Amino acid sequence: MDEAALLISELLARRWLPRSHPRVKRALVDAELFAQVEQRLAQSGLRFLDSIYADHVSLGLLPAAQNAVLGEAGANANNNLELPRDAQALLVVLWALIVLPKRERQTSRVQEADAGQSDFFPGAKPLPAARLASPVLSYKTLLEDYGPQLGKKLRLDANLKLLERHGFIVRRQDEIAEGPLLDVLLDYDVLAPRILDGALADVLLRERAEAEPASASAPEENPAAAQDAGGPSAIENEVQE
């Protein structure tokens, strides 16, 4: 078997591979090999999933195959893992709390590096790795802030285990970190505008305000508005969209 076939076979068997994997690294720098991989995947209705902001790669369905296999209506149109609605809502919340701040840190550091290049022979300014830029969430804080909206402790624990099993998150005792598929399977260009301008916009603003040092002159938040923005109906509507 050649390199293209071995890479595809390993991705099918393991579901994801790190970008540091020898075959993945070779495919990402070898245009001819990458074209072979894409061609063979397309013949089976698959495509190579990769993001420069993520540390892993995976496989997914082509849009035409997705419509034919999963259908254009119903829950299977965007959920072939059979995640319950509260697990989908939790996934959106975790994506918003982990991927959005990580992407902001990665892009801001690159822009700062570009703006500060004054050396005659400036060195390479690589994009910060996801493992370095990705924030780590506290389970206790997540339970306190979103537990009532996401089924309380029993359902939250069950759904966290489900998302961890599917590779979306990684848990280390009380910490919740980005999993290999969180920033690969969820389309940032589609999901980010819906969250930043949609149902979770007020929730994210509240999270950022609480993360910043408290200012004596800062206006007090409206608890009723915050509760309405983070309620289950708002989150579930965003997931359904």
Account of the protein in words:
This protein is mostly helical and 241 residues long. Helices cover 57% and strands 10% of the residues. The chain contains 13 helices and six strands. The protein has helices at residues 3-14, 22-29, 31-43, 63-70, 85-115, 130-133, 139-146, 152-165, 182-185, 188-196, 201-211, 223-229, 232-240; strands at residues 16-18, 46-49, 56-61, 137-138, 169-172, 175-178. The strands form two sheets. It has a three-stranded antiparallel sheet. A three-stranded antiparallel sheet has the order 4-6-5. A hairpin with a 6-residue loop joins strand 2 and strand 3 (56-61). It is globular and about 50 Å long. The termini are far apart. The model is unreliable at 221-241 (pLDDT under 50).
Q: Enumerate the spans where pLDDT stays under 50 for 5 or more consecutive residues.
A: 221-241
**Largest sheet descriptor:** 3 strands, antiparallel
What is the overall number of helices?
A: 13
User: Structural class of the secondary structure composition?
Assistant: mainly alpha
Relative strand content: 5-15%
Shape label:
globular
Q: Could you estimate the helical fraction of the residues in percent? A: 55-70%
List the strand order in the largest sheet: 1-3-2
The number of E-state strands comes to 6
Termini Cα gap: 42 Å
C-alpha Rg (nearest Å):
20 Å
